[in-house]
């Protein structure tokens, strides 16, 4: 069908600007989980458990490194329509033609400075158990829009589009071996978790949690490396591959003393 292609699904997400229906979000999650579980082992070597590991070995191609997204759906829209210098194709077309690759460093949720007033309004909604939730809905429509585009790109171009886990990829707002709860302007981490349970439901919450746990944490290209945060310590290649099993490595590549301030 016309709307079934990745291009039109992404276009619809960009233009919709509202909370996705649960069916659409679940379908995006199912597609991206299939892609993440079936990575090319030459690009993402398997860990000792047989599952894709934490390391991405990038192709010898022009590489676009995308900084923290923080719910900026407009940023992704501009990126995908951008024509690299000297080329005659957009980034999206380059991905589809296998002429370039994209590495996002994570942090899909939680708008930052531009969203301070909205977060404050959303905190009042959170404090009243989301009896009203206009501000929080606006925040989550942007965050989920960004992440659904990420999911569709990963599903469509699994060997050319990569999204690394950041410290904001923590839908459960858990304190664990690999995660720490988050707050900056208000209680963003707890607010997102509460909203997700209340309006998306437990099944999608668990599926999204699984998606986050499947994300890689380190990418190596031609004379460059990419990770979300400054590593706490040196890790060897085989250790990075095992990061999905030894989750403390995930923490060491997504949280640093600086990011904990």
The first-to-last residue Cα distance is 49 Å
Strand content: 5-15%
Continuous helix count = 10
Number of strands: 6
Query: Mind describing the biggest β-sheet?
Result: 3 strands, mixed
Average pLDDT:
95
Query: What is the CA-based Rg, rounded?
Result: 18 Å
Low-confidence stretches: none
DSSP helix fraction: 40-55%
Helix/strand-derived category reads mainly alpha
Structure description:
Helices cover 44% and strands 8% of the residues. By secondary structure, the chain is mainly alpha-helical. The strands form two sheets. The chain has a three-stranded mixed beta sheet. Strand 5 (218-221) and strand 6 (224-227) form a beta hairpin. The protein starts with 5 loop residues before the first helix and ends in a 7-residue tail after the last helix. The model has no long low-confidence stretch (mean pLDDT 95).
